[in-house]
Amino acid sequence: MVTVQAKLIFEGGEDKQRVLDLMRRWSSCMRYAYKRLLEGYKRNELKRQLQGIFNLNSRYVDDAIMKAKSVLNSCKERRESPKKVIFGGRQLFEKLQKRHINGDQYRKLQLKWQEKRKGNLYSRGDRSKKGNLNTRIEIDGSLTKLRINVGEKEYVYATIQPGWKVKGGTYRDRNQLLQAISTLGEPYSVELKLKNSVVYAYFTVEEIFPKSEITKSNGVIGIDTNAYPKHIAWVETDEQGQLLEYGRIPMPELESGISSKREYYRWQYAHMIVEMAKDNQKAIVIEKLNIKDKGKRGDFSGRKSRRIRHYFGYRLLLEKVKLLAKREGIEVIEVNPAYTSLIGMLKYAPQFMVSKDVAAAYVIARRGLGLRERIPHNYMMFLSRLDVNELEELKEYVRKVVKNTYVRKKQLREIGRVIKFLQSLESEAERLSVPLDGTSTGSRGENHNLWRVLKVAVVTPLSPDRVLRDMSVLKSLLVSGQVGKTYKGVSSCFLGQGLWLSQKPPAGAGKA
């Protein structure tokens, strides 16, 4: 959907007043319909009744009932009480109840709340009427006007002032876009809102996309978004999933700044990704993100993490990529992002000597092609020798060595889950019979647990107190099944081989 925001200029004060009266009656009709829906009334019962009460035609009444239903359904989806809805905004309403606010400040808040409560009008488009019957865009020479039905065959004309925001895309000439919408004959919806005594119009039309000609049959480009540091990791593969090229796009502009600036740069980065796919004739594979609040305060691991994710806007960026790709006829494939970073870190980062983010993008690309990830043979042999007692020993070691409370709790919790998983496997035969793909439908799948077991058993001993960045240490184990080089002074003989960790003295120790 493309939404164009514009300001309405009326020829006289009387025309504007008639439109404001229409908006007031429609808003009252919508609130009245909402109350009746709570009481169990049906649409057909309400429609004729509301026309007489609020002096509105059947189309306006139908749109008011539809809006009331959408508010009701939204409350049910959020598991909130529909009876506690406050039209005009709960936050403003609660501010007005505070006794310490008075004078001009109180009157401004009251005016703002009344405008949000009473200054609304919505009119749906109709394909059979070639656009919108109640609020129609008309071209008058060089001007674009909006014809508003305010009564029985009574209309008010308002000039549409171009140059305002467009949601869902970027266009150089908004006036030209509105004229194109009016002449195509496609249905478009119009919503009027009153803000600071000015009437704004929002025109929404469904965009028609061309058929996707660039598909995954030519290969794909996998995209992995990363909030810290802010960048996009990308990989290009052929149709069989073989790695061709990779890189990263840093995005420092999304670190801070006003929302309009960040929005502008999101569009720029989305254009870069789509142009890359278009030049290489590849489909785009992205993560199907469903970001939910985590942690006690609902802010992931703290205030810093919450701020990073707020400024980055994963979903906003990926939605722009999807929209621009559809306009160019490029296929966009969304995949489940679960365990992509973990699989990439353990399997492809040491194999191709790339960063974890690039490896995660490669896993995403392969999922888009329908390929399934299996644990390499040497890793599987390593898991078959893994012992619960050694994990218990690792648990005690982490408890003693790691000073960071947050990291220690996370590591201990992860090791505990792995121990429970291994204890649930009664024999070697049962352990090896577990499916080894890394693309299970649920996060509790046993195959995913095997990747988690591998992470705890291999990565945690190497770097128990911090995130391991250099994955090249795993290459020897991945390729030959042998222990690789040490990491930052830690001598490691992996779990399952009967030896433990010992700290090496720093360089130069013991010298005079």
UniProtKB/TrEMBL annotation:
Domain of life, per lineage: Bacteria
Keywords: DNA-binding
GO molecular function: DNA binding
NCBIfam families: IS200/IS605 family accessory protein TnpB-like domain, tspaseT_teng_N
Record's protein name: Transposase
Source organism per UniProt: Caldicellulosiruptor obsidiansis (strain ATCC BAA-2073 / JCM 16842 / OB47)
